[in-house]
Write a structure and sequence with these properties.
Organism: [Candida] jaroonii
Shape: rod-shaped
Bound molecules: zinc ion
Protein name: AN1-type zinc finger protein Tmc1p
Strand order of the largest sheet: 2-1-5-3-4
Largest sheet: 5 strands, mixed
CATH class of the largest domain: Few Secondary Structures
Number of strands: 5
CATH topology of the largest domain: Zf-an1 domain
Strand content: 15-25%
Distance between the termini: 92 Å
CATH architecture of the largest domain: Irregular
Number of domains: 2
Length: 139
């Protein structure tokens, strides 16, 4: 049997989904993910978080709460790195990321701007060489 379930979002919006008797909480979550751009959220039923073990059979509406990503804001931006980023010196001036001592350098965090950076360094060196040459030729 098909029926409708209403998911209230934290905003004024709500999401209406059609589910079957056999739909599980996990199914519902993936359904929400495919029908919206939400990825990190929990479903609340009467003040309690819905878990995979819960049944949807007597639920008609749920509240969706966005969950903050598990990574704390102070952590290094590099993939799964869990080290706190360094203040100031950990900032990448190219991609605006914040990194720990290990991933601070562009090479180490696979910076998107690595190529531009290399080009820039190359140009800087070229200019430097050029200057040195003009200086030495003047002597
Ligand atoms: Zn790191
Ligand atoms: Zn970077």
């Amino acid at each position: 049997m098909e029926r409708q379930i209403t998911i209230k979002l934290s905003t004024e919006d709500s999401l209406k989904l059609t589910i079957l008797d056999t739909t599980t909480v996990d199914d519902l979550i993936s359904l929400i993910k495919t029908s919206s751009d939400l990825t990190n959220f929990k479903l609340i039923n009467q003040g309690k978080k819905l878990t995979s073990q819960d049944s949807l059979s007597d639920i008609d509406d749920l509240i969706l709460m966005k969950e903050e990503s598990k990574k704390s804001k102070k952590k290094c931006y590099f993939k799964n790195c869990n080290v706190n980023y360094l203040k100031l010196v950990g900032d990448c001036q190219y991609c605006q990321g914040k990194y720990c001592h290990k991933h601070r350098l562009l090479e180490n965090h696979d910076c998107n701007y690595l190529n531009q950076y290399k080009l820039l360094e190359h140009q800087k060196n070229a200019i430097k060489l050029e200057n040195e040459r003009t200086i030495s030729s003047r002597v």
